[in-house]
Amino acid sequence: MKGAPLLLDSITDVAPHHAGQIAVSGSHGGLYPAAIASRAGLRAVILNDAGKGLDGAGIAGIMALDRVGMAAAAADCMSCEIGSARDMMERGRIGTANATAMALGVTPGMSVADAAARLADAVNPAAVLPPVEEAARTETIGPHRHIVRLLDSASLVGPGDAGGIVVTGSHGGLIGGDPARALKAQARVAVFNDAGGGRNGIGFTRLPALDARGVAAVTVAHDSARIGEAASALATGRISACNRLAAALGAEVGLPLRDWIAGLPPVATD
Questions:
Q1: How many domains is the chain partitioned into structurally?
Q2: pTM of the predicted model, to two decimals?
Q3: Quick one: pLDDT band at residue 132, thresholds 50, 70, 90?
């Protein structure tokens, strides 16, 4: 059962043939990534705690996996770069481990590499987590009746979001450091969770990449909104960083996200 762990910059990159493996993933440790790991048949997983955040949303999946007997842990967001499994393996330190992982010797403060080696002894979980449906809905706000797409994951962004306002529950780090994965549509506005900022400010790195593409983008503070929940970002999120285009539209650090979006000017028409 020993062997090198599977490295996945995003847990959504897991495939059926990965069943039975141990994975280190750059995704946050919320419920949806945990459910993907569980239902993919992984034996154990290490995710990123995304600063833990509001209501502990960044590690909620780590604890949920304990209920089905799956060993899981989360790297401290300040020890490594979210969205990069390789950086987690090279620099990451464990911030949280569930009881199943701790029984295998995984403890807070341990390196991710050492934790992954201990998780190689994990057995197949007795059950799997139920599927977690990612919400995708719209809301109309502000005097100009802006239509806002609320997507719990940036993976749900599609061509139909071009020119629109997209609020995601995803972290603001570039997946694998790749600017091409910053957003899958040419939106007018994009919103992410800053995931605690993280090592080298990784939680904000989608913002300059989107500036270069002409997309106004902001992050909300991890302790103001539950990561993985777009509705939480819109309801209680406060802006923690903004790119140049967003600042030109009035975005400011500390401003409630909903207030900023409500005050956006209407889209110019010919």
A1: 2
A2: 0.93
A3: confident
